[in-house]
Specification:
Shape: globular
CATH architecture of the largest domain: 3-Layer(aba) Sandwich
Helix content: 10-25%
Oligomer: single chain
Length: 370
Amino acid sequence: MSLSVRIRKSLGAFSLDAAFEGAPAGVTALFGASGAGKSTVLAAIAGALRPDDGRIALGDQVLFDSAAGIDLPMERRAVGWVFQDARLFPHFSVEANLRYGLARAKDRPVVAKLDEVAAVLGIEALLQRRPRDLSGGERQRVAVGRALLSQPRLLLMDEPLAALDAPRKAEILPFLERLKTAFALPILYVTHSLGEVTRLADRLVLLEDGKVAAQGPLGEVLARPDLPLLSARADAGAALEATVASHDPARGLSRLTAGAVELVTPLIDRPVGTPIRAVMLARDVLLALTAPEGLSARNILPARLESLTPRADGTVLVALVLADGQRILSAVTRDAVEALRLAPGLALWAVVKSVAVEGARGGGLMALED
């Protein structure tokens, strides 16, 4: 079921005026800087904050409609909510915390069962522990499980990894990835981490100063050079939705296909035919006017230069169109633009130094570099 949001809300000097559509399944990422209004949007959807005006619908159910006088209370919205801090009951065991979610489900259709949730989130061995005996990542997994067991129609995740250090984030991300396929549930995921976006999101909504700057499928939005919120970042890049085409264990390599584009990556622990995401940072894409030879880089793609966008750091972001219309980005110096006489319409070669992929051995992203 799809999420449709159109709301306005004034909070002192801050004004929220946002309208967007969520993916009917999988993860819609709401991305923006601190203070952009991301958490305010989640509070409005959950029913913790009443908009001044607008409409919120989940599938065929209207949660809020100012014109029609509809404002369902939180308990009738069937929305699960995961916060930055786990907010577990300290005197309950993990299992008791999970069963609290079940107690809130009442007569809702079953989305998830306790044993299924425990298996997907890898918390079977933790059921008799208390929250004080868990790591930060483990507590967040339990919090996600409790929200799932409330049998929601929509799961809201408000920067669930923000309070975790890098090792704990790496620990929990593979489990969050599993949610997309294990449960037929739309997820609205709030973050200011572009790494989390490229790892988890299927659809991306950019929020700036209370307004939606862009929205659409992840790959389309990431590759737009006209969005400073993304293009000005050092980790700007593009993502292609690919399929595992073959493996070469002897050489430790896998081959992916993304439309007409072929990519080589380290050996991936996924069966042939598995959908997979390939991420290429702009800083890892070099440009050549003729087909390069004698390079260690494995991925050399014919492309057409679409646009040049100067950046504040002195580099230029180059938007490239691949053979089948897919787009990637390259970051080059202004000197390189002049030396290569780069201009829109120019045919050239993109030399991709590094491709990061989901599902590499050991979990997480892995890159093939020169």
